[in-house]
Specification:
The protein is of the alpha/beta class. It has nine helices and 18 strands. Strands 3, 4, 5, 9, 10, 17 and 18 form a seven-stranded mixed beta sheet that branches. The protein has a six-stranded parallel beta sheet with strand order 13-12-11-14-15-16, with helices on one face. It has a three-stranded mixed beta sheet with strand order 6-7-8, with no helix packed on it. The chain is globular, with a radius of gyration of 20 Å. It starts with a strand and ends with a strand. The relative contact order is 0.16.
Length: 329
């Protein structure tokens, strides 16, 4: 089968469009012929950390396709079923948090290939209202956003949420979901074009990431901040945060180290909450939420499998708004 394989070098230099071998499903598994896939910053982080000592890996955590073979002891599936991939392996319930969740596309081979073999529990019915490209980019980012907003952040109707760094997959899904939940949403970006797009999608305010947010006289204090950036933006949050608010952290794009203003946390009783990915239980809830609210992913562009490296280059430069889809034929 044709696949995108990462080997030999770190970063994008290690990517190859080449032949690989699909694996027949064992007991409890299904073989899926993929119709589409998505790429994420997680893929970039994994490839950057790999080198000549690592075995070849097919990256990719998002995907959707058709079941073409079923292993023994699998119930509830038929050949030809259209499915979407739940990327988290072995995490069934929201309350049973693993130290670090195993995810499709590292440590196991991922979705940037013609076929993928997975545990049957990681295949769920594809939402009928989504195209193949939309379903193919949904899983990882939408699951991360859903758990961050509702399981961990407990976002309520009428609350005010700040989403810094709008444009990435998780942030974009969080915007769509928060608007659907009846929240007031403020976003930030260095890009005027991204700020304008966020306003079109329902944000009430769009701030320059490097501006003085306190000068926005009509900006009400925020009840919740969804942070994927860390140190580069963290000090600014206390200019606009409400006492008793929550900061939900799911990433660290500006680095792992963070200087905490302790008094600014304990005097106003701000909660710091960590989150990462999500369980199968939450994936099912997320799919129901997406169908109930008729949410469609924002797709920045669609690339054929052989041009996956070009899609990664666009992501690496931070040029996209929303998701980058890979069409697999």
């Amino acid at each position: 089968m044709k696949a995108i394989v990462h080997s030999n070098q770190s970063g994008l230099a290690g990517l190859q469009y080449t032949e690989s071998t699909s694996r027949a499903p064992k007991a409890g598994e299904v073989l899926i012929q993929l119709k589409s896939a998505g790429i994420n910053h997680r893929d970039l982080f994994i490839m950057a950390a790999r080198g000549t000592h690592d075995t070849p890996l097919i990256p990719g955590s998002d995907g959707a396709g058709i079941i073409v073979e079923i292993g023994e002891d699998v119930r509830g599936f038929s050949i030809g079923d259209e499915v979407i991939i739940h990327p988290t392996l072995g995490w069934e319930h929201a309350s049973e948090v693993p130290i670090v969740p195993d995810i499709v596309g590292g440590p196991t081979d991922g979705t940037l290939a013609k076929y993928i073999t997975l545990p049957a529990e990681n295949a769920l019915p594809k939402p009928a209202h989504l195209s193949w490209e939309e379903a193919g980019v949904l899983s990882l980012s939408a699951l991360t956003a859903y758990r961050a907003l509702f399981t961990r952040g407990v976002l309520k109707q009428g609350e005010h949420i700040l989403i810094p760094g709008i444009g990435g997959g998780v942030a974009t899904y969080a915007l769509l979901m928060a608007v659907a939940a009846g929240a007031q949403v403020t976003v930030t970006s260095r890009s005027e074009a991204k700020r304008n797009e966020a306003l079109r999608l329902g944000a009430t305010h769009a701030l320059d990431s490097h501006g003085d947010w306190r000068l926005q006289n009509d900006l009400e204090p925020v009840d919740m901040i969804l942070d994927s950036i860390g140190q580069a933006m963290f000090p600014k949050y206390f200019d606009i945060i409400r006492p008793g608010a929550r900061i939900v952290m799911y990433g660290a794009s500006s680095g792992d180290d963070l200087t905490l203003p302790i008094r600014s946390i304990f005097f106003p009783q701000v909660s710091l909450i960590g989150t990462s990915m999500g369980s199968r239980e939450e994936f099912v809830q997320m799919l129901q939420w997406v169908e109930q609210h008729d949410i469609h992913p924002v797709i920045d562009g669609v690339y054929p499998l052989q041009d996956t490296a070009k899609a990664f280059e666009r992501m690496e430069k931070g040029e996209q708004f929303g998701n980058l889809a890979i069409r697999i034929e």
